[in-house]
Design goal:
acyltransferase, Immunoglobulin-like, signal, peptidoglycan synthesis, L,D-transpeptidase catalytic domain-like, 5-stranded mixed β-sheet, disordered N terminus
């Protein structure tokens, strides 16, 4: 017999045996059971309207795994059911559980718009099931919209390594944790940082230590849909970018009557100075980490602006040149040609006095955000006096953050906590 015929016969016999086995395993009158189809659920519910913009979008599946979730937003011009116009927006990002069982949005939704959710899941048999759902968020009246905040540094500005990010809102912020987690800081040279609140309208971000020099930093204020206070929602995002320049750190031990300035680790100038007399608190130069705030080629210094009115002991009013602000309690580094004790004794009202040449050099060669580290006096700079934010230890800074955890400034790093409403 031909070998090919014998082989063919064996295959036929095996096929018949398998068919008989399958018949024996299936009870008479019953069809083989199919694998259950994935069951996908989406919240907010399909067709729901008036949804709070800070409601998370959640997708879950049973009897399968999610393979794709897309959330898209549209304004009234595209969806007639929306309450008010909202601009078209990019898809909303989210996080998928490791086992593929659930997905939740990472950002809030635009107020007054329509939201479409597309979810796909794969079943045990490899087949896919897709579900499409839509709902509408409620609009926000003009008087309940979170106004765009003032941000420092300004977009495109070059600053020193101590520069904080200062965000000032027009309205008091009540839900601070949501707002903190919606403000992302990204740096080319990653570090840890965190937010603190100086008052009910001002949030400050500082890195754990000074910024690494020579890098770009981006601040994304993802405030759309964030509920800053009860019924007050953000309706727009904002992005600013700034450059951290060379590292300039000045150090000054007040009893030595000298300031040393280093740039990128090299001393570039040693400046004779005269600081506060230290007879009373108001004329004592503060010790601590001062971040340079602003500078003027000419400035009228009036003690009434710091609580010493005309007619009081210690009152002064002076016209000064080449002034660089180091605190909010009246301290500047500036030219003082009238002070004959520069380099020898402390005779000022608390400021750092310099010669005209040195003061002009300091004014011209420093940036907002450069650092002046001062020691040797009996008065410490308060953490909220000017930009004295490094006066708080890193541990204390974290304790005063609403999240209680640092932000990683590496690109794509998630915030320490959620951005949605506390009760959602």
């Amino acid at each position: 017999m031909d070998r090919r015929v014998r082989l063919s016969g064996r295959l036929v016999t095996a096929a018949v045996a398998l068919a008989l086995l399958a018949t024996a395993c299936t009870p008479a009158g019953e069809e083989p059971q199919e694998a259950p189809r994935p069951r996908i659920s989406i919240t907010p519910a399909p067709g729901e309207s008036g949804v709070a913009p800070n409601t998370p979008v959640r997708v879950a599946v049973e009897d399968g795994v999610l393979t794709d979730v897309t959330v898209e937003q549209a304004g009234r011009e595209q969806w007639a059911a929306a309450e008010e116009e909202a601009p078209g927006r990019a898809p909303v990002a989210g996080t998928l559980a490791e086992d593929g069982s659930a997905w939740v949005s990472d950002r809030n939704l635009a107020p007054g718009g329509r939201v479409a959710v597309y979810a796909t899941a794969r079943g045990a048999d490899g087949e896919h099931t897709e579900v499409v759902s839509s709902f509408a968020t409620h609009g926000v009246a003009k008087d309940a919209r979170l106004a765009a905040p003032l941000v420092l540094p300004q977009d495109g500005q070059t600053v020193g390594v101590g520069m904080p990010v200062v965000v000032t809102f027009e309205e008091p912020v009540e839900h601070r944790e949501q707002v903190e987690n919606s403000m992302h800081v990204t740096s080319e040279k990653p570090t840890e940082g965190a937010w603190n609140w100086v008052d009910e309208t001002t949030a400050v971000f500082r890195p754990r230590e000074y910024w690494e020099p020579h890098q770009k930093v981006v601040v994304d204020l993802r405030l759309t849909g964030v509920e800053a206070a009860d019924g007050v929602f953000g309706t727009a995002d904002e992005r600013i970018g700034f450059e951290v320049g060379r590292e300039l750190v000045a150090t000054m031990h007040v009893p030595d009557h000298r300031m040393d300035v280093e740039v990128d680790g090299e001393r570039v100038r040693s400046i004779p100075v005269s600081n506060g007399k230290g007879e009373r608190r108001f004329n004592t130069t503060t010790s601590g980490v001062h971040v340079l705030m602003e500078k003027y080629s000419r400035l009228v210094m009036d003690s009434s602006t710091v609580g010493i009115p005309e007619g009081s002991a210690g009152y002064y009013r002076l016209d000064v040149d080449w002034a660089v602000r180091t605190s909010d309690s009246g301290e500047f580094a500036h030219a003082a040609p009238w002070n004959g004790s520069i380099g020898h004794a402390n005779r000022s009202n608390g400021c750092t006095n310099m010669s005209v040449a040195d003061a002009r050099w300091f004014h011209d060669n420093t940036l907002t955000g450069d650092v002046l580290e001062t020691t040797g006096t009996g008065r410490d700079l308060e953490w909220d006096n000017g930009w004295g934010f490094y006066q708080r230890s890193w541990e204390a800074w974290l304790e005063h953050s609403e999240t209680g955890a640092p932000q990683d400034t590496a690109a794509g790093s998630p915030p320490p906590g959620g951005v949605h409403g506390d009760d959602l």
